[in-house]
Amino acid sequence: MLASASPRRLELLRQIGVEPAAIDPADTDETPRRGESPRTYAERMARAKLDIVAPRHPAALVLAADSVVAVGRRILPKAETEQQARECLALLSGRRHKVLGGLALASCGGKVRTRLVETVVRFKRLEPKEIEAYVASGEWQGKAGGYAIQGRAAEFVAFISGSYSNVVGLALFETAVLLRSS
User: Active-site residues: which are they?
Assistant: First the structure.
């Protein structure tokens, strides 16, 4: 059972041969708490999604995940407007940022395992015309931090340390380890 409506997460699971029996997205408030660190937020969101969906499927393995893009202690939004996308890209330009992937898995017996995966990404310095071209592509819509590394934004990435699939939406190595251990 996948507690996510993200088509990227489903594609990533299929990439490692995992086909969820069903998809049941959690509807939860994703507003960060005042003073909440990006790490804590990513862990809390994955667990909150699991806590909503797992009770609806007590006899199933339920996987929940959340991706957070952060610059320092600042959590970037899932860009919903062109202006948000521009602001995210301008902030990321020429800087390192972290992509934090929260994972939570409930086994059939109710045991919960969690993981937090951290990937460091550095963007090259972006020219205003590059930002505008990317915004015009529409690829940023609904993406944490306003970009999709698996698409056109790949040309912005000067450095990455850690899990590439985590930046796409689901850390595959850690997910596979969680699934094997349940």
Answer: 66
